[in-house]
Amino acid sequence: MQPMASSPKPPQATTRAAAAAGSDKPSSAARLTRDDWLDAAFRAAIEGGFGAVRVLTLADTLGVTRGSFYWHFADHAELVNALIDRWYQRELKMGERLLQGQPQDPLARILRILEGAIAHSVEEREFDRFELALRSLASKDSAVAELLEKVDQNRMKILHDHYFQLVHDEEKALELSALFYLAVVGSHQALNRPSASDKMSDYLKSIIARHLVHAVQPTA
Q1: The three-state (H, E, C) secondary structure of 31-65, written as one string
Q2: Domain 11-77 has CATH 1.10.10
Q3: What's the pLDDT at 30?
Q4: pLDDT of amino acid 27
Protein backbone atom coordinates (compact mmCIF):
# COMPACT_ATOMS: atom_id res chain seq x y z
CA MET A 1 0.00 0.00 0.00
CA GLN A 2 1.16 3.45 -0.79
CA PRO A 3 1.48 5.84 2.16
CA MET A 4 -1.40 8.31 2.49
CA ALA A 5 -0.51 11.72 1.12
CA SER A 6 -0.55 14.54 3.63
CA SER A 7 -3.21 17.22 3.26
CA PRO A 8 -1.94 20.12 1.15
CA LYS A 9 -1.40 23.43 2.94
CA PRO A 10 -3.38 26.47 1.79
CA PRO A 11 -1.33 28.50 -0.73
CA GLN A 12 -1.08 31.47 1.62
CA ALA A 13 0.12 29.32 4.52
CA THR A 14 2.66 27.61 2.26
CA THR A 15 3.97 30.96 1.08
CA ARG A 16 4.33 32.26 4.63
CA ALA A 17 5.98 29.10 5.89
CA ALA A 18 8.37 28.97 2.94
CA ALA A 19 9.33 32.61 3.36
CA ALA A 20 9.86 32.11 7.08
CA ALA A 21 11.90 28.96 6.57
CA GLY A 22 14.19 30.76 4.18
CA SER A 23 14.61 33.91 6.20
CA ASP A 24 14.18 33.11 9.89
CA LYS A 25 14.24 30.24 12.31
CA PRO A 26 10.85 28.83 13.33
CA SER A 27 11.71 29.47 16.99
CA SER A 28 12.06 33.20 16.28
CA ALA A 29 8.72 33.25 14.50
CA ALA A 30 7.07 31.38 17.34
CA ARG A 31 8.19 33.97 19.88
CA LEU A 32 6.33 36.73 18.08
CA THR A 33 2.57 36.89 17.72
CA ARG A 34 0.43 38.67 15.16
CA ASP A 35 -0.33 41.28 17.81
CA ASP A 36 3.38 41.88 18.38
CA TRP A 37 3.70 42.92 14.74
CA LEU A 38 0.53 45.01 14.92
CA ASP A 39 1.76 46.75 18.07
CA ALA A 40 5.06 47.57 16.38
CA ALA A 41 3.21 48.83 13.29
CA PHE A 42 0.98 50.98 15.53
CA ARG A 43 4.03 52.57 17.16
CA ALA A 44 5.60 53.21 13.77
CA ALA A 45 2.40 54.86 12.47
CA ILE A 46 2.08 57.25 15.41
CA GLU A 47 5.75 58.18 15.26
CA GLY A 48 6.21 58.56 11.53
CA GLY A 49 2.88 58.07 9.76
CA PHE A 50 1.91 55.08 7.65
CA GLY A 51 4.95 55.62 5.45
CA ALA A 52 7.01 54.41 8.40
CA VAL A 53 5.13 51.10 8.56
CA ARG A 54 7.71 49.02 6.66
CA VAL A 55 8.29 45.32 7.15
CA LEU A 56 12.09 45.54 7.33
CA THR A 57 11.96 48.47 9.75
CA LEU A 58 9.49 46.63 11.98
CA ALA A 59 11.62 43.49 11.87
CA ASP A 60 14.65 45.51 13.01
CA THR A 61 12.59 47.03 15.82
CA LEU A 62 11.43 43.59 16.94
CA GLY A 63 14.91 42.11 16.61
CA VAL A 64 14.09 39.47 14.00
CA THR A 65 14.49 39.00 10.27
CA ARG A 66 11.48 39.58 8.07
CA GLY A 67 10.84 35.84 7.74
CA SER A 68 8.98 36.01 11.07
CA PHE A 69 6.56 38.47 9.49
CA TYR A 70 5.37 35.92 6.91
CA TRP A 71 4.23 33.53 9.60
CA HIS A 72 1.47 36.03 10.37
CA PHE A 73 0.82 38.12 7.25
CA ALA A 74 0.82 37.44 3.53
CA ASP A 75 2.23 40.86 2.69
CA HIS A 76 2.51 44.50 3.76
CA ALA A 77 -1.04 45.30 2.59
CA GLU A 78 -2.51 42.65 4.90
CA LEU A 79 -0.58 44.12 7.82
CA VAL A 80 -1.87 47.63 7.16
CA ASN A 81 -5.45 46.40 6.68
CA ALA A 82 -5.29 44.43 9.94
CA LEU A 83 -3.88 47.44 11.77
CA ILE A 84 -6.66 49.72 10.54
CA ASP A 85 -9.33 47.11 11.27
CA ARG A 86 -8.06 46.68 14.82
CA TRP A 87 -8.42 50.45 15.35
CA TYR A 88 -11.90 50.42 13.78
CA GLN A 89 -13.11 47.55 15.97
CA ARG A 90 -11.86 49.45 19.02
CA GLU A 91 -13.82 52.52 17.89
CA LEU A 92 -16.99 50.45 17.59
CA LYS A 93 -16.57 49.07 21.10
CA MET A 94 -15.95 52.55 22.48
CA GLY A 95 -19.16 53.76 20.83
CA GLU A 96 -21.09 50.86 22.37
CA ARG A 97 -19.71 51.62 25.82
CA LEU A 98 -20.62 55.27 25.42
CA LEU A 99 -24.26 54.36 24.84
CA GLN A 100 -24.46 52.07 27.87
CA GLY A 101 -26.02 53.50 31.00
CA GLN A 102 -26.80 56.84 29.41
CA PRO A 103 -28.63 59.36 31.64
CA GLN A 104 -32.10 60.29 30.45
CA ASP A 105 -31.40 64.00 30.23
CA PRO A 106 -29.96 64.79 26.73
CA LEU A 107 -27.96 67.69 28.20
CA ALA A 108 -26.28 65.30 30.63
CA ARG A 109 -25.59 62.85 27.79
CA ILE A 110 -23.83 65.54 25.73
CA LEU A 111 -21.75 66.60 28.72
CA ARG A 112 -20.81 62.96 29.30
CA ILE A 113 -19.62 62.67 25.69
CA LEU A 114 -17.57 65.85 26.10
CA GLU A 115 -16.02 64.59 29.33
CA GLY A 116 -15.12 61.27 27.73
CA ALA A 117 -13.75 62.84 24.55
CA ILE A 118 -11.41 65.22 26.38
CA ALA A 119 -10.33 62.52 28.85
CA HIS A 120 -9.59 60.19 25.92
CA SER A 121 -7.36 62.81 24.32
CA VAL A 122 -5.38 63.27 27.53
CA GLU A 123 -5.16 59.64 28.68
CA GLU A 124 -4.90 57.88 25.32
CA ARG A 125 -2.99 60.41 23.29
CA GLU A 126 -1.40 57.72 21.13
CA PHE A 127 -4.77 56.80 19.60
CA ASP A 128 -5.34 60.43 18.62
CA ARG A 129 -1.95 60.45 16.93
CA PHE A 130 -2.80 57.21 15.15
CA GLU A 131 -6.07 58.68 13.89
CA LEU A 132 -4.20 61.74 12.59
CA ALA A 133 -1.86 59.41 10.68
CA LEU A 134 -4.88 57.52 9.39
CA ARG A 135 -6.52 60.73 8.16
CA SER A 136 -3.32 61.63 6.34
CA LEU A 137 -3.37 58.20 4.65
CA ALA A 138 -7.03 58.78 3.69
CA SER A 139 -5.97 61.63 1.39
CA LYS A 140 -4.28 58.99 -0.79
CA ASP A 141 -6.45 55.91 -0.15
CA SER A 142 -10.16 56.01 -1.01
CA ALA A 143 -10.98 52.89 1.04
CA VAL A 144 -9.49 54.46 4.17
CA ALA A 145 -11.33 57.71 3.39
CA GLU A 146 -14.63 55.82 3.20
CA LEU A 147 -13.94 54.10 6.53
CA LEU A 148 -13.16 57.39 8.26
CA GLU A 149 -16.27 58.97 6.79
CA LYS A 150 -18.28 56.12 8.31
CA VAL A 151 -16.61 56.69 11.70
CA ASP A 152 -17.32 60.43 11.52
CA GLN A 153 -20.95 59.83 10.59
CA ASN A 154 -21.44 57.40 13.48
CA ARG A 155 -19.99 59.90 15.94
CA MET A 156 -22.06 62.74 14.49
CA LYS A 157 -25.25 60.67 14.60
CA ILE A 158 -24.88 60.09 18.34
CA LEU A 159 -24.42 63.82 18.88
CA HIS A 160 -27.27 64.72 16.54
CA ASP A 161 -29.70 62.39 18.30
CA HIS A 162 -28.90 63.93 21.67
CA TYR A 163 -29.12 67.50 20.39
CA PHE A 164 -32.40 66.79 18.61
CA GLN A 165 -33.94 65.54 21.85
CA LEU A 166 -32.84 68.81 23.39
CA VAL A 167 -33.90 71.37 20.74
CA HIS A 168 -36.45 69.41 18.64
CA ASP A 169 -35.20 71.12 15.49
CA GLU A 170 -33.51 69.04 12.78
CA GLU A 171 -31.41 71.83 11.22
CA LYS A 172 -30.31 73.22 14.57
CA ALA A 173 -29.42 69.75 15.84
CA LEU A 174 -27.26 69.16 12.75
CA GLU A 175 -25.49 72.49 13.17
CA LEU A 176 -24.86 72.00 16.88
CA SER A 177 -23.55 68.45 16.45
CA ALA A 178 -21.22 69.60 13.65
CA LEU A 179 -19.87 72.48 15.75
CA PHE A 180 -19.43 70.24 18.79
CA TYR A 181 -17.58 67.60 16.77
CA LEU A 182 -15.28 70.18 15.15
CA ALA A 183 -14.55 71.70 18.56
CA VAL A 184 -13.62 68.30 20.01
CA VAL A 185 -11.44 67.40 17.02
CA GLY A 186 -9.65 70.75 17.34
CA SER A 187 -9.19 70.12 21.06
CA HIS A 188 -7.62 66.74 20.35
CA GLN A 189 -5.06 68.36 18.07
CA ALA A 190 -4.29 71.06 20.64
CA LEU A 191 -3.90 68.49 23.42
CA ASN A 192 -1.48 66.43 21.34
CA ARG A 193 1.10 69.20 21.47
CA PRO A 194 4.06 68.77 23.84
CA SER A 195 3.01 71.92 25.70
CA ALA A 196 -0.49 70.56 26.46
CA SER A 197 -1.45 70.45 30.13
CA ASP A 198 -4.34 69.53 32.41
CA LYS A 199 -5.08 73.24 32.66
CA MET A 200 -5.50 73.44 28.89
CA SER A 201 -7.76 70.38 28.75
CA ASP A 202 -9.95 71.83 31.52
CA TYR A 203 -10.12 75.16 29.68
CA LEU A 204 -11.09 73.60 26.35
CA LYS A 205 -13.71 71.41 28.01
CA SER A 206 -15.18 74.41 29.84
CA ILE A 207 -15.58 76.64 26.79
CA ILE A 208 -17.12 73.86 24.70
CA ALA A 209 -19.55 73.12 27.51
CA ARG A 210 -20.37 76.79 28.00
CA HIS A 211 -21.11 77.62 24.38
CA LEU A 212 -22.29 74.33 22.90
CA VAL A 213 -24.09 72.70 25.83
CA HIS A 214 -25.15 75.05 28.61
CA ALA A 215 -26.00 77.88 26.19
CA VAL A 216 -28.38 75.67 24.23
CA GLN A 217 -31.95 76.39 25.19
CA PRO A 218 -34.09 73.24 25.45
CA THR A 219 -37.44 73.38 23.63
CA ALA A 220 -40.54 71.35 24.22
Answers
A1: HCCHHHHHHHHHHHHHHHCHHHCCHHHHHHHHCCC
A2: yes
A3: 52
A4: 52
